[in-house]
Amino acid sequence: MEDQRSFNSPRRTLSYSRNRGATFSVFETDNKAASGVGVSGEHGPNPSEVYGFVGAISTVVATVIFLVWAYVPDPWLHSIGIFYYPSKYWALALPAYASVALATMFLFYVGLNFMATPAPTSLNSIYDENSKDPVWFDPALKEDDRPIEPYSDIGIDQINELMFKDWK
User: Which candidate, 36, 54, 37, places its Cα nearest to that of 45?
Assistant: First the structure.
């Protein structure tokens, strides 16, 4: 009788035909040596792959059903035995409502970002809690002895001087 802790899989069945008498046990440390075939650490597909596949197939099926409902005339649907379905009004209304809702969400998103952004004249657009002033080292040190300067913000006065010095 076979041990209660072992099981057979398609991979195990193939290796059994090659290597008679070899068994695969869950509790063995070296699975390659037990079966003669390398066993991967993961069995089966990744759940996100399964959900993606099911979602893609479901989307295609739902699209086909929607297009059949929207474009096939009522007498044809009745002739194949389909009598209960929504009004054809919704074939136009649902996409229209969905596109208006999407445009409204986009506008609300942009509006919320504008509300959260400080005004151009606000000092918060120049300095905030993450601003870092530059660190100045002793200018008497030789170039080789000076440490690498840590990153810091460039002051608005330096930016204005670089950008507008020709206008003076």
Answer: 54
List helix spans (H) across 83-155. 89-116
From residue 29, alpha-carbon distances to 5, 11, 103, 110, 140 in Å are: 13, 18, 58, 57, 66
| C-alpha separations of 122 from 110, 116, 159, 162 in Å | 20, 13, 17, 22
Whole-number pLDDT of residue 5? 53
Q: Which amino acid is at 3?
A: D
Q: Say what the pTM is.
A: 0.44
| Helix 47-71 vs helix 89-116: crossing angle, to nearest 10 | 130
pLDDT digits 0-9 by tens, 48-98: 999 999 999 999 999 999 999 999 999 999 999 988 888 889 999 999 999
**Cα separation, 31 vs 41, whole angstroms:** 10
Find, among 16, 34, 13, 15, the residue nearest to 25 by Cα. Answer: 34
- Which pair of structure tokens corresponds to residue 47? 């759940």
